[in-house]
Amino acid sequence: MNRLLSRLSLALLLLLGALQGLAQKTYVVSVGIDHYKYPNIAPDLPCSAADARAISHFFHDYNGSHVFMLLNENATRDHILRVLQQEFSKSTAKDEIIFAYIGHGFQGGLTCWETKDMSSVITYNEVQRIMQKAKARRKIILAMSCYSGGLTLPQGERLARPTDNTSVLIYASSRPDEPSWASRTMRNSFFVERLLEAFNGQADQNRDRKITARELFNYVNPRVINDTDGRQHPQMMGKFDDSMVLVYVK
To answer: Where are the domains of the chain?
Structure first.
């Protein structure tokens, strides 16, 4: 009997290992910069590190995502690009990659901790090239920065080739010509606060315990617009179906 139980246990372990090998993995790179090396060029921000931590913790707790978080002085240009390349190159065709950036932005890209001039920024095209090379079937960018809607301009369409089966969703906190806002009395920025509320179930309009891209947009956008008295309009664009499920409500 003991020998039979041992064989059954071994078979169960092998089966579980095989199922884990088939499971989808989520790779998250989360960047948050609220203190910059040159504050006269890039002033301090009130919520960026807290936003990055909150997004990282959500995805880690949600499905055990592989999370790599870069905060403040660790978020240099070279380090961000190296980590994006390193983490996203691990993905396979059944996986998902998520890049969350919270910090100062400009019309054409993102700042880094040591940003002093254009030699120390990251352009949208650089992010797009790394995302495009990844094999993941789903690619998501969550950008909380001024002018982040620039990610949704035509160059963003290159994140996925039109002929492949990849889904690409870009959700930016503001229009290309618009700043993003945060309150110094809040733990998280308006955009990330509403995003987390949505992911945690408040966007589940039909109560099917799934948060789709359309439900996320319908929940976050009007609330951020209201929170900022009409000064900030999140933008969602990419190559995805409105019914694409982003998270399942527990």
So the answer is: 24-179+233-240
Amino acid at 192: V
Tens of pLDDT, residue by residue over 102-149, are: 999 998 999 999 999 999 999 999 999 999 999 999 999 999 999 999
At the second CATH level, the architecture of 24-179+233-240 is: 3-Layer(aba) Sandwich (3.40)
